[in-house]
Amino acid sequence: MKKLIPILLAFLPLAVSCKLDDTYTQTNVQEMVTVKEGNLLNDNGIILNVVEDALGTDKWKIEGNRYLALFDILNRALDIRLKSVIKATVMTPEVYNPDADYPTDPLVPELTGYSGGYLNLGFSYYKDKKSNAAHRIRICEERIGTSQRYLHIFHDGAGEDPTQMDEKDLETIISIFSLPMDLKSGERVSLVMNVIVTDSTGKKTVQEKTINLY
pTM for the full model? Predict the structure, then answer.
């Protein structure tokens, strides 16, 4: 199910115009949403009424769960056809310890966005198709003064080396996190993480990269 949603590097919450006519429709909308009384509340505070559900299960209807949802808007009343969801983990970052021995497995940044009081982050990583070992992503926060936050993202894999393994032996896993965060005006946020870099000869290496978000 996870591969059904194309993840975007950045996204904006749904903004619905008051001038829409009754025949308004929109397909393949992606939104961060929270389950509220069997429907979905987006981060602009708009209720999306799930009148058609293609998931085939009610397991997603746990009050308060957050998801990246893919859906079609059917009319001005914001009735929707829910097509797929990826569950987001609500997480408070750990405190970064510069002396700690953190894992260095690579990640791919896929999604960033601040909405509804959450900093929403999405990453993908490569997993050996033959392995059942768990992977873990840790998010640690380092504050510099009152205006700079560094979020150090660490991926603890299961011994895979995607720079050396054949792509046919790997599968892509997507993880999404919602970090409750009160970002103040002028505050800067950066991600620090290990990524795969391919040089002009095609050689792949893992390098640390800083991504400035705001």
Answer: 0.85
